[in-house]
Design goal:
By secondary structure, the protein is α+β, with helices and mostly antiparallel strands. The protein has a two-stranded parallel ribbon. A hairpin with a 2-residue loop joins strand 2 and strand 3. It starts with a strand and ends in a 19-residue tail after the last helix. The protein has one domain.
Amino acid sequence: MILAVIPARGGSKGLPGKNIKKLHGEPLINYTIKAARKVFPDDQIIVSTDDEEIKKTAETTGLKVPFLRPGELATDNA
């Protein structure tokens, strides 16, 4: 089975909170989720994040966010 992982870090340096900022009225991460859904069924897509707000936003689309990634795995060099 293939697993599509959408990495969405909360600590962006350039634009903090960018994954949940709205673009044309929709959170940015939703565009990535829609693109993944064109290729994979929902049961093969997860969002990996260290941020509770990104988790909540992704879950509103019906996707699973099975865990929050530890902070040490969400750095520039991780």
